[in-house]
Amino acid sequence: MTDQQNTAANEEETAPQFSLQRIYVRDLSFEAPKSPAIFRQQWEPSVALDLNTRQKVLESDFHEVVLTLSVTVKNGDEVAFIAEVQQAGIFLIKNLDDASMSHTLGAFCPNILFPYARETLDSLVTRGSFPALMLAPVNFDALYAQELQRMQAAGETPTVQ
């Protein structure tokens, strides 16, 4: 009986583990350089979205992943507003091989953070008195795969920081 308990305990210690610890806004920015004149113009926006992720090890198995969404909206040739949110999360991740850890930090965690970042950005924009900014979902698995292909073509190897 004791051998079975020890085996179960050892398997539990080496089994992959993933746990979300906290989600928070790390940084938030909004600028409307042409206010209030921009509100008196015909609204024909063009939206440019810049998306970025980064991660770092906080301590042993705890990782911070930061998803940055930067949006520049122009009305004609004039910048109507610039908004940026850094949505972050702390994740407990244990017992993954390097490839799985890289995928988890590069695609899985940003996928969890995106709905929070999108809602924060939308709320920020509407508080600036602009129409809601409803960003389409993002396929982080596809973006991660593209980045891996780019790195392989350049002779780089993905690293977990």
TrEMBL record:
Source organism of this protein record: Pseudomonas laurylsulfatiphila
Family stated for the protein in its record: Belongs to the SecB family.
Gene3D superfamilies on file: SecB-like
PANTHER family according to UniProt: PROTEIN-EXPORT PROTEIN SECB, PTHR36918
Keyword Transport carried by entry: yes
Subunit structure: Homotetramer, a dimer of dimers. One homotetramer interacts with 1 SecA dimer.
Gene name of the encoded protein: secB
Compartment(s) where it occurs, according to its Swiss-Prot or TrEMBL record: Cytoplasm
Protein name: Protein-export protein SecB
Keyword Signal: no
Free-text function comment from the UniProt entry: One of the proteins required for the normal export of preproteins out of the cell cytoplasm. It is a molecular chaperone that binds to a subset of precursor proteins, maintaining them in a translocation-competent state. It also specifically binds to its receptor SecA.
MF term (GO), any: unfolded protein binding
Keywords tagged on the record: Chaperone, Cytoplasm, Protein transport, Translocation, Transport
